[in-house]
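In the laboratory, one determines a bound structure by crystallizing the protein with its ligand and collecting diffraction data. In a computational setting the workflow is compressed into a single prediction: the sequence and the ligand go in, and a structural description comes out. We illustrate the idea with alpha-D-glucopyranose.
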Amino acid sequence: MRFLVLGALLFAIPPPAGQVADAHRDAVDRRVDSLLSLMTLEEKVGQLVQVAVEGEESPLAEEYARQVRLGEVGSFLNSIGASRNREIQTIAMTRSRLKIPLLFGYDVIHGFRTVFPIPLAQASTWEPDLIEKAARVAAIEASSAGIHWTFAPMVDIARDPRWGRIAEGSGEDPLLGSLMAAARVRGFQGDTLARRDALLACPKHYAAYGAAEGGRDYNTVDISERTLREIYLPPFEAAVRAGAGTLMCSFNEIAGVPSSGNRHLLTDILRGEWKFDGFVVSDWGSIGEMQQHGVAGTLAEAAALGITAGVDMDMESGAYHAHLADLVRAGKVPLPLLDESVRRVLRAKFRLGLFDDPYRGGDPAREKTLLLAPEHRNLAREVARHSMVLLKNSNVLPLRKEQNVALIGPLADNRSDLLGCWSGNGREEDAVAVREGIERMLGHPVPYARGCLVAPLDRRGFAEAVEVARKADVAVLVVGETALMSGEAASRSTLGLPGVQEELVRAVAATGVPVVVVLINGRPLAVGGFEESAGAILEAWAPGVEGGNAIVDILYGANPSGRLPVTFPRSVGQIPLYYNHKNTGRPFQAEERFTSKYIDGENSPQYPFGFGLSYTTFDYSSVSLSSPLLREGGSLTVSVSVRNSGKVAGEEVVQLYIQDPVASVTRPVAELKAFRKVSLRPGEEQRVDFVLTPEMLAMFDLSMHRVVEPGAFIASVGGNARDLQSAAFQFESAGPYRLDRR
Ligand code: GLC
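The predicted complex, in structure-token form:
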């Protein structure tokens, strides 16, 4: 008996996690291979085809049902609803030959039915853990509605606010972008894809989509390999290392090669260097668009380019459906290469548990209780509060309940635009407008005037707005952009407030009543047209379903703690303008003519990267280093003390930047390397330590090797990329310290 018990105990002792993962992976691969051996060529191609079907109406159109029965489609996008997707899945599970479950994908970008603030707002929290929770809620809601896969997180670095899709990402910095990318992948996928509320993540758009020339969506990208690797790729690598199960390529080319046909990106780097073992999906029609790019003469040629480069699944272009089988038969696409793509898709479906339960997660009863659950709304309100950035405050905020407040502006009593771009299954009626929020909090109606619309050049509402303001102690103006003025295909050539909104702010301010401007927008705006007229400016972004309540929370005392994840320029003429720029041979000097500058205005940003005010103030001690030397395998600690020198509790984001002033290639004047959000009571002081390692100083040298070069470095600490205190140290090494073995 003892032996038996011992044996049982041995089995009971779990093997090391790595072995479990390997064993599980091997088991899945065996199941994949045995299924693959049964599949016809057409059925294999079918797994690489994704088709868009809209909405929730039933039954599924016959043309799609037929494709499912014949095994000619492996995934649908945009089909939502537990009942509807269960009905479609049942066709696959009962009427197709091999009963391979379908994968249902949808753009769950910042929430499913409970719409959170847009991702750029979420990045403004500088709280990856909080953002992971938001993604988890999105996954719980979406999976209950029969969705398995989200086309998110969007992790494109964006340095150009003219680009509308800056709204969907985490701003201009590779570190902040990487931490947010990994947090969202963890939130969406949970601790295992087999959970019924796991959502397969899909970092996008690989790669450098945000570097479009002129900020014009879909436009040409022409950047160096070094810029690609140091600025645009890190968030994708972070997402892959966080376990992302899929990835989406981008519409754009990079230096002449469209991403949908870029083997260097999709195979050499993604699979060769990062060991990504998920599958790649194209972006809507991007494979077929290689004809427009001019690198494919026919749809068949585009199909061959895509599959050969490493795009496993074709979203909506029809290229794979129409031509892959013939290309394989003609020997133009090797069958083993096609088989490998099919394996990747099947592996994802096995990992999601779809072969064990094709209807996993999708449950009308769960859907009914989970969507917009009170705890989800509460989290959305918390994230919105933490995302708001106080840009100016001349003792106007916080407001007091006894003040007579006038509420003005085209977005003050608006719901739909608070949801922002890519609002998923969000509905206008779900959102709380600012007017509703303020009247509910105060317990009485508030004088209100719309004043104007967002875009039309119509000033007829000004008089009413001015009249309402005159009778008030303070005027709150809610202005900005509509939801469709940012997001996809929404590039702007100007950055001011659209329409006559700036005039409205000035007209109201001319009454002499203090003005609070609340911005609802999806990109950095140039505020010069109204900044002087405003006593306070609160960047609220597109704050989601609880936006109205969160804005009122902040206006009436919740201390704002958001910090800018992207630089705010003074004018569109300054673009591109970002904090981690190069020094150039003639760095800006206002009084020196022959230096890098514009001669017709201020050259500094309106608000720098990392900036944000509080209802309190924070004082920093000088920076101290545990040692003036850093060596291979060693570390040094950068320390600073931060004190809350004001009268209310608040949160400060303490930021650590590094500069390498002399190297074998030019280096940015600053690079964010760490940050910590600290809460301080009035008068409280806290020491903040950052542990610096050589790996944090890495760069790509002339040979594109990832190295740390010996020499002097500067560590700087502060509350934004401008207001910093510094200390110098040396990295000591016999020669360049090589970090990669490519
Ligand atoms: C769009 C977007 C992409 C999205 C996809 C599916 O064109 O570029 O971000 O996930 O199509 O809707």
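Residues 68 and 123 are 40 Å apart (CA to CA). Keep in mind that any predicted model is a hypothesis to be tested, not a measurement.
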